[in-house]
Amino acid sequence: MRNPSGGFIVSANNRIPDEKYPYYIALSYAPEYRARRIYERLEGLAGVTVEDMRSIHGDSVSIPARVFLKLIAAAKPADEFSARAQSMLARWNGIMERDAVAPTIYGAFRVRLLHKIVGGLMGPLVEVMFQATGRGAPRHLAELASQIVHQAKSGDTSFLPPGATWGSTVAQALDEVVAYLRQRLGDDMAAWKWGAVHQTIPKHPISHLFPGSEELLNPAPISMGGDGDTPYAAGYSPGRPFNVTLLSVVRYIFDTSDWDNSGWAVPLGVSGHPGSRHYADQSPIWGNLELVPMRYTWERVKAEAEARQVLEPL
Length: 314
Fold this sequence. Notes:
The longest helix is centred in the middle third of the chain and has 21 residues, at 102-122. The strands form two sheets. A three-stranded antiparallel beta sheet has the order 3-4-5, with helices on one face. By secondary structure, the protein is mainly alpha-helical. Strand 1 and strand 2 (244-247) form a beta hairpin. The chain starts with 32 loop residues before the first helix and ends in a 10-residue tail after the last helix. It contains twelve helices and five strands.
């Protein structure tokens, strides 16, 4: 697309062209939710600042959550704990904040609902699908999870077991997930904060070969908001809730009116050497949705450089 009428282009791993586009790009795409939310934030925005864009990077509004909240509100909970969880979700705005409890209940609910529905379709194979890692079965589960959102919104029951309704299925999933969270996190619902369970777990691929060096090679976990459906990308595999496995590799914000005002952040740091203080020094910056200054003009680069490297011919 060139010179779009809206003045901007949005891409968040979603499918950009329609079915008429004649050239191959890919077979699998991310759902539309992240791109749609970014579009909502950008539409009508004028005089855009770096702070505006940083805020959009960190937007954790879940569009699918707002679909399921309507169904959960109509469910008939089985006990007091389920009723409390339902009440908490009824007051929730669908923002996946790491210090909130409702996102934990919702995140666990999505996993349980997916398991129930896929289990009805696949039988015993569902356990194999949920135990798999990598990009195979988890990718297929993600496709099904997205389809289930559309079906829930439209009332389509074709994936549900015979005789089941969205009301009964959602109620069962809510009751089961509350029991699961009580077993995993205890009865104090106020302690079920999203950031307590939704974390990155950085692990160097060869750290197991160096006993005693795990702490040096594997930086500390980072608590995160968002999920795989929010612009604040922090997805996880249904088989391993809620360890973050899909995230932004790097965040860039370019100020084309003042290039020296640009910023960036990576999940760990800029050095691949575990002994360097830059090996993971950007972790808290990245985790808190902050930015490291990105300088462009040579005068600023020279003035603010902390080190210089000289390459000399042999």
